[in-house]
Write a structure and sequence with these properties.
Elements: E1 15-19, E2 22-26, E3 39-48, E4 51-57, E5 66-67, E6 70-72, H1 79-91, E7 94-106, E8 109-122, E9 132-139, H2 152-163
Parallel strand pairs: 3-8
Antiparallel strand pairs: 1-2, 3-4, 3-6, 4-5, 4-9, 7-8
Bound molecules: zinc ion (ZN).
């Protein structure tokens, strides 16, 4: 990625400054310094009757593979809002979040995936036809095989779900 020339907060021309052992474009006005930029993916683990909700993608390089409901966070929303919005868009369910389950990131691959546990408040299952061909609930012992999962973060999220134990009262 090309280095930034101007501060994304206030537009000031950035100057090279050594921070944490690297020269980084830095804003002399507000102190912004360029570290890595990532996209943020917000996903949900929606559980019902012991099964987890997966959607089968029908576009792009992962066509036909199963993914957790979710998508990329926009500039004007929180990660939690994105998780709820994307889940509703992709599955028809309105959900409430029950807490952070896990995060996934890999060096050199600039996306941070944040995975929440969630439960259905209302709605009926209805996939977005331009994003998914179907959606279904899978019990822990009958998840799709690894090669049918869309992303490494999908496998990571399902592993975290299987390992999750609710806190004891
Ligand atoms: Zn600035």
């Amino acid at each position: 990625m090309a280095a930034l020339a101007f501060c994304p907060r206030d537009g000031t021309r950035l100057v090279q400054t050594r921070i944490d052992g690297r020269d980084r474009p830095t804003c002399p006005v507000c102190g912004f310094a360029e570290f890595m930029f990532v996209q943020i993916g917000a996903n949900t683990i929606v559980e019902r009757d012991g099964g987890v909700l997966l959607v089968r993608l029908n576009y792009g390089p992962r066509d036909g593979h199963w993914a957790l409901p979710g998508g990329l966070v926009e500039n004007d929303e929180t990660i939690e809002e994105a998780a709820r919005r994307e889940t509703t868009e992709e599955t028809g369910f309105t959900v409430a979040l029950d807490g952070l389950l896990s995060t996934w990131m890999r060096p050199g691959f600039p996306i941070l995936v944040v995975i929440y546990r969630a439960h259905i408040i209302s709605g009926t299952l209805r996939v977005a036809p331009d994003e998914a061909s179907e959606a279904a609930f899978f019990p822990k012992e009958k998840l799709p095989p690894l090669e049918e999962l869309a992303w490494p973060s999908t496998a990571h999220g399902l592993d975290a779900w299987r390992a999750y134990e609710p806190p004891r009262p």
